[in-house]
């Protein structure tokens, strides 16, 4: 599938994040591939997946473009989301058409800012589409200038090594941030994908109205224990 076909196919669509990590109640062999199969059945236009192993399994299961990433040393290092070119190569070789990387004002192990991974991928794997996970409008602008095809405020509130500020505990998306990110890349070829706290179909549609090219939904679809926790937390607030 050509780059243009992939991009056109994502427009105004649902991308489902299919991830599970050790310690979660739904973590088991083959779970993410089954999530992807359900997403495809439901009409999703793309999948977001973590690690070369999961990407390979999902690629064997569904016929949808995959936004691949690799979380390495999360909660340990400032740059952990596809933190270097070698990780990007592994994701590409596993079958992902789109490589997701961290693009924030944090430095990699080699002392370079994480944005540099965009340029390295464009030189090494020019046919790959690049999805920049950003935290601020400034991140989005830099990522766009470096050549990212997509930007998403996935790392909203990100401070360091896996810790987030208080905004991250809210149940609703940061629509002001979405507005500012859309404005930051206005007039460029970079598309804005909304990711983060998109918990209902109505919110997803609102994000499109605000200028998002597509939306990524994870917790509300593929992590039922997190959705249940939102309900339990809200009911506890009512009781309190």
UniProtKB/TrEMBL annotation:
Gene3D superfamilies: Aldolase class I. InterPro entries: Aldolase_TIM, NanE, RibuloseP-bd_barrel. Its EC number is 5.1.3.9. It catalyses: an N-acyl-D-glucosamine 6-phosphate = an N-acyl-D-mannosamine 6-phosphate. GO terms for cellular component: cytosol. Pathway: Amino-sugar metabolism; N-acetylneuraminate degradation; D-fructose 6-phosphate from N-acetylneuraminate: step 3/5. It is an enzyme of class 5 (isomerase). It comes from the Bacteria. GO terms for biological process: N-acetylmannosamine catabolic process; N-acetylneuraminate catabolic process. One of its GO terms (molecular function) is N-acylglucosamine-6-phosphate 2-epimerase activity. SUPFAM superfamilies: Ribulose-phoshate binding barrel (SSF51366). Keywords: Carbohydrate metabolism, Isomerase. Converts N-acetylmannosamine-6-phosphate (ManNAc-6-P) to N-acetylglucosamine-6-phosphate (GlcNAc-6-P). Belongs to the NanE family. NCBIfam families: PRK01130.1. This is N-acylglucosamine-6-phosphate 2-epimerase.
